Amino acid sequence: MTEERNHALSDVLDRLEGAAHDDSITVQEVVEKLGRKSFAALMLIFALISTSPASAIPGITATVAAIVFILVLQMILGRECIWLPRFITRRRMSTQKLCKGIGWLRRPVAFVERFLKARLTFLLHRPWLYLPLGLILALTLFMPFMEVIPTSGSIASAVIAFFAAGLLTRDGGLVLFSLILLLAVPVAVWQFGFAS
């Protein structure tokens, strides 16, 4: 069981890569491939895309922010199946850029997986879970504006990726780490975006 959990992140990348076909792929196809109940997996994969070279796709940070906002809101409300509006599910991504991003992510994901294990699992249950969900929800509201500041969108997406990975692997320690990183986002955005 532990072995399966340690490879949970790589499994998500495998499933996404398996969905890639033709010249482009829709968000709907990604949802179907990952499963309509896989809130954490879907949140993770789009956050990872936004931190990879695929983030060069125009508007990807705003799209990821919208998707994560909707997913987190549904998690807070206790919804069991994922729902996304059609203007998001019909959006297409280049499979070439997507696969390039997946390839780029494999090594760091494999490295991180070595340290993941079930711990501090109480943080993954209500009411404790409401705090990180609320903070991630607030972060997504600022992400569309981060597109004008180089690397800031990727930093925010990395925080979301760590949070989602913690949920997916039952690692409350990683969820806690993501909250610490979240507190550092405003400082990092200022440093990279405005500091001389």
What are the SSEs and their pairings?
Layout: H1 2-6, H2 8-19, E1 24-26, H3 27-34, H4 39-51, H5 60-77, H6 86-89, E2 92-94, H7 95-113, H8 130-142, H9 152-169, H10 172-193
Antiparallel strand pairs: 1-2
**Major sheet: order of its strands?**
1-2
Question: What oligomeric assembly is this protein in?
Answer: single chain
Strand tally is 2
List unreliable stretches of 5+ residues. Answer: 1-5
Find the structural class using helix and strand composition: mainly alpha
Global Rg: 16 Å
Distance between the termini: 49 Å
How much of the residues is beta strand, in percent?
Answer: under 5%
Reading the helices and strands in chain order gives: HHEHHHHEHHHH
> What does the average pLDDT come to?
82
The biggest beta sheet is recorded as: 2 strands, antiparallel
Q: Helix count? A: 10
General shape: globular
- Considering DSSP H and I runs of 4 or more, what fraction of the residues is helical? 55-70%
Tell me what the structure shows.
- By secondary structure, the protein is mainly alpha-helical.
- The chain has ten helices and two strands; from the N terminus they run ααβααααβαααα.
- The protein has helices at 2-6, 8-19, 27-34, 39-51, 60-77, 86-89, 95-113, 130-142, 152-169, 172-193, and strands at 24-26, 92-94.
- A two-stranded antiparallel sheet has the order 1-2.
- The longest helix has 22 residues, at 172-193.
- The model is unreliable at 1-5 (pLDDT under 50).
